């Protein structure tokens, strides 16, 4: 038996990698310095896994931005517009775009990694796509670890997953047709890895967790039979995670590989299917992912041991490994850093395990199987049992009033009083907006000063009233700025907020929050998901103060700004002792109360952000409907308590909408603002084909890049939108919040946006 970890978080304790990367971007540090810091991080991560007793440790799980982007480089899959660039300049230009005197290139698209809140860079393919091997990252990292005496298993993304996660950038071909071109590069890569002296290679094929067509299945099978020819001594681990193999199980069991990894957290029941399957051969090793890489609750050793033992009884110890369900990338680094008892109560802390603690769990499970009498392992087993029992029985989890309210929900609670066709004219009259109304998505630049002031306040260096004065000043300045440049529906700027979920989590009962529980979202962007440990309720209003303050400073409408129940759920670590839908309804009721309070306070536009609805979608068709039903209903519960005149906005980003457009329409938001700019309005197609009835603000520029869009570019996008949608339904806005931007580019971009909207109005009046 071996212990295995599919991947370790690379961002480092307290987001160590973030600041050096950003300093490198700002040219504050040299490439050498940058490279040294990343090397140290890798070293540290390998050593800790080794020290705790993990047998199979990954290399190439480290990344300066994203592992799919790394794979693009490894396979030489570099879009033409970046080909004049080299090294890290090229790498980061692909991730973030680049604009200077010589170059002006837009970034590659980014989208969500399966059903997680991690974003990957989407590979771009053309018909005549060429690939070329560049194994440097993989070989360098392997050798680095070897120097420390650690023979790692390199981890790479499998060929079919790589192709399917990418996108055709030309008409007239299917990316799967590139398989024959990409396989030779993978073959060379395997030879290269073999030469390094690696014993195992982990190939991630998480597309096996979804429904595959016969052609896709055939492509997987073909790939591994081809690769097999070059493996000689190298043993292959195929890793699927985030769901079971399902209809791909027969295929997976027939792959010519040594190890198959199962995510037993997401799908414990697949174990029986595998063990009893006729294609399960008597040499295949099963890697049992029993320790959750996606959540922070302590493993239940008793439970895990039962599963492990069941497999051992059938196939013997030598063919069973124990490990993480997926990469630990999605878990915070180390619970030991959480020393502030007022942030996270000791009672709750004992229920938790972060990445480092999960290493211990995996190692301990292995010891408990191999040396059940080991005193240390025994002790850990008892402590684990006690902690889990304490959690089950804890008084801080249950709130009967909240449970009752959820049980008493009726259909009417999830329905607006009137339909959209009745609401639209009433809202128009009330808000008096012209065609192409302009707005933003909510946040304005979170400058150094804003962040420093918040951190001084949190540390107690400045008082509540000093902090409030600062936030008031920033808010007023932002309102003035929006008035000056002529935006129509204003926002308060979200200066009082750290993160759109954490901010609410901190104010809701049933939530706990960490100090250093950072998880990478994309590139250097990290989030600190709250923990939902108990029944959720809202002790008092959460956003009314700053929204009504902003509204009191202007005659223009200010948009109240909330995070929706599904997004709060999706971006938190959710309790696993009741259905997610129940927790979601509890949050929905809390948000509903907030929406109603904002309306009472005089806000006539309220935005409920739901950027995460799409990412919660189960990976398999058969499970989607049930999820969408409860998720959409939860949104509607939160939005349905207001009058017809009150305009509800929602916002979504980084989503493919085509497959859930009906559900998005069912949300019945009066206005939806969406991300479309990186894919040039492509996402709009779904809305057009569906004849989406309500108002839409297709994002006209990419806020994830510091590039300032020109008026011509914006006009082009709005022309496209006007061709596709009823003009009266079109809003003009950036594609997401502006918190990660700086003021100068924000000003220029928004000025261009407002000017273009004006021009569109003029053009329209000519048409009329
Ligand atoms: N209102 C949020 C903001 O502007 C929305 C962020 C998001 O969609 N991720 O920051
Ligand atoms: Zn967004």
Describe the protein in words:
- By secondary structure, the protein is α/β, with parallel strands linked by helices.
- The chain has a domain at 439-767: TIM Barrel (Alpha-Beta Barrel), CATH 3.20.20.210.
- The chain contains 27 helices and 24 strands.
- It has an eight-stranded parallel beta sheet. A five-stranded parallel beta sheet has the order 19-21-22-23-24. A three-stranded mixed beta sheet has the order 15-18-20.
- β10, α8 and β11 form a beta-alpha-beta unit.
- α17 runs antiparallel to α18 and α22 packs parallel to α23 (621-639).
- The longest helix is centred in the last third of the chain and has 25 residues, at 743-767.
- The protein is globular, with a radius of gyration of 26 Å.
- 51% of the residues are buried.
- The mean pLDDT is 95.
- The structure holds glutamine and zinc ion.
- Zinc ion is lined by residues 441, 611, 651, 653, 736-737.
